[in-house]
Amino acid sequence: MEVNSKVWASDPSPTSNLAFIYCTVVSKSTNQITLSRTKNHDDPTDDFNNDDANGDDWLDDMYGDDVIVRKATTTTTDGVAASEGGYDGVFEANEGDPSNVSDLISLQHLHSASLLHALSVRFHKNDIYTNTGPVLLALNPFTDKMKETLYGDSVRSDYMRQGLMKSSGIETSTSLPPHAYDVADNCYRAMMMERKSQSVLISGESGAGKTETTKIVINYLTSLSESQNDTSSTSSSIIPKILSSTPLLESFGNACTLRNSNSSRFGKYIQLSFQRSKLCSAAISTYLLEKVRVTKHSTGERTYHIFYQIIRGALSCHPSSLDPEFKPKSPNYKLTKYCGSGLELAGFFQYTSQGGAPHLKDYDDLDGYKMCFESMRNLGWELDTIDDVFSTVAGVLLLGQVDFEETEIDGETKACITENSTVVTDICELWGVDLGRLTYCLTKKTMITRGETMIISLNIEQANDARDSLARNVYGCLFDWIVKGVNASIQGESKAEHDNTSSFSGRIMDIGVLDIFGFECFASNSFEQLCINFTNEALQQQFNAFIFKLEQELYKKEKIQWSFIEFPDNQDVLDLIQGRPNGILAMLDDECRLPKGSDKKWVGRLYKQYGEDSDRFSSTSKQKRDCVFCVRHFAGVVEYMAETGFCEKNKDELPISAQEVFKTENGAKKFIVDIFAPKVSTADEKKKNTVGSQFKENLQNLLRKIEATGPHYIRCLKPNDEALPSVLVRKRLIEQLKYGGVLEAVRVARSGYPVRLDHAAFYARYKIILRSRLASSLPQSPIGQVECVSLLDDLLALPENLANQLGGEGGRSSKIRAGLPKPVDLVFDKKEVQLGVTKVFMRKSAHNRLEAHRTFVMSTATVLLQSSLRSAMIRKIYMFHRYAAMILQRIWRGYYGRMVGLRLREAKAAMTVTKNLRMLAARRRFLQLVRGCTLFQQRLRSFVARKVTSAVRIQTYWRMWWRCGIYYGLLKCVIVMQSRCRKFIARRQFKVIKSEQRDVGKLHEEKERLRSEMGALKAMLKSQAKSERKVAAGGGREKVLVDELAVWKGKCNELEKENLRLKGELAWSKMESVAVLQPLSPSRTRSADSGNRSPTSPRSPKRAAAETTIMIAKLESELQEQREVVRSERTKRRLGEAEVIKIRAKLQGVELSDQDIQDLLPPPPPEEDDDDDEDVDYEGAAEGDRGDLSLPSPRQKSRPGLKRRSSMEMGSKLRKQIVQDSQMLIAKEALKIRNISSGSEDWGKAWDADDDKADGVVEEVSRMQRTLKLRCADDDVSDFFRVLFV
Question: Residue spans with biased composition (Acidic residues) (predicted)?
Answer without folding.
Answer: 1166-1182
